[in-house]
From TrEMBL:
This is CRISPR-associated endonuclease Cas1. Transmembrane segments: none annotated. One of its GO terms (molecular function) is hydrolase activity. The lineage of its organism: Bacteria, Bacillati, Actinomycetota, Coriobacteriia, Eggerthellales. The keyword Magnesium applies. Gene3D superfamilies: CRISPR-associated endonuclease Cas1, C-terminal domain, CRISPR-associated endonuclease Cas1, N-terminal domain. Homodimer, forms a heterotetramer with a Cas2 homodimer. One of its GO terms (biological process) is defense response to virus. It comes from the Bacteria. Its cofactor is Mg(2+); Mn(2+). Mn(2+) binds at residues 146, 202, 217.
Length: 290
């Protein structure tokens, strides 16, 4: 199982040789592609060879590029994620909306429960209110418990005047973590032959990642907890590296202990099987913060 995130922050040349990604600066570093889960190219002065890009695509390793402000701006993924992608897309178009609504209910319950756990870990009394919200989510979340919980949650975490639309250090960290999380889910969905554009709840015609946005919801609190514990820090190289390391942290599931990156893979696989009728809704994989 690949586990390393390669983080390129300085001017360098990245190439491919005999199964290895080769990074040349003053010295040379070689990393076997089998060890790499993701590549993040922050520096706009880095050279990445087309041979390496082709091999990364062949190995289904996502590459995230950052803009001049060092914010994630784009992702490189293989065109063909699976040999039966046409079959999977036809299946996706025909997904049962009732199954999708129930799956979305469970995803929202997981998200709100993990938000409540974040507040409990920080000893904030609003956690009890979120637990109540989680217990009242209906299929499709028609009463928008997710939205009501989010308002209470972010006000409790970052203060009553906090807004996700503000340009500040907290939102910079959140946006960076969410962007990396989204890239992980994009990889998992496309590698199985499905379209990220067709979601079960998110349906914005201008959003290329509706399904990824659906699946990422229970995992956002992982990023939130880190940011809540580092609220005044700028989004520098060390902070970005720390956020990337979150995906190597271990969490307990009924099946055993897994890295977060592996859990994202299992979560995606299970959800797609449920939506495709290959697994019962009760196979839904609950992810809980420790």
């Amino acid at each position: 199982m690949s586990y390393r995130t390669v983080y390129i922050t300085n001017r360098c040349r990245c190439s491919y040789k005999n199964g290895y990604m080769v990074v040349r600066q003053d010295d040379q570093t070689m990393i076997h592609l089998s060890e790499i889960a993701m590549v993040v190219v922050e520096s706009t002065a880095a050279y990445v060879s087309s041979y390496l890009m082709a091999e990364l695509a062949q190995a289904r390793i996502p590459v995230v590029f950052c803009d001049i402000k060092h914010d994630p701006i784009g992702q490189y993924s293989p065109i063909y994620g699976a040999h039966d992608s046409t079959k999977r897309i036809r299946e996706q178009i025909a997904w049962d909306s009732a199954v999708g609504d129930e799956l979305w209910r469970r995803i929202v319950v997981s998200k709100i429960s993990n938000q409540a756990r974040v507040l409990e870990l920080l000893e904030l009394e609003q956690a009890r209110m979120l637990r109540d919200y989680a217990m009242s989510v209906e299929p499709g979340d028609v009463t928008n418990r997710e939205g009501h919980a989010a308002k209470v949650y972010f006000n409790a975490l970052f203060g009553m005047g906090f807004s996700r639309d503000e340009n500040n250090a907290i939102n910079a960290q959140l946006n960076y973590g969410y962007a990396i999380l989204l890239a992980w889910l994009n990889r998992e969905i496309t590698s199985r032959g499905y379209l990220t554009q067709l979601g079960i709840h998110h349906c914005n015609e201008y959003n290329h990642f509706n399904l990824s946005c659906d699946f990422m919801e229970p995992f956002r609190p992982v990023v939130d907890l880190y940011v809540a514990n580092h609220p005044g820090e700028s989004l520098d190289t060390r902070t970005k590296s720390d956020i990337l390391e979150l995906f190597s942290d271990f969490y307990q599931l009924p099946q055993g202990t897994y890295r977060l990156s592996s859990i994202l893979s299992l979560f995606t696989k299970t959800n797609l099987a449920i939506l495709g009728g290959r697994a019962d809704i009760d196979a839904y994989m609950e992810f809980s913060l420790a």
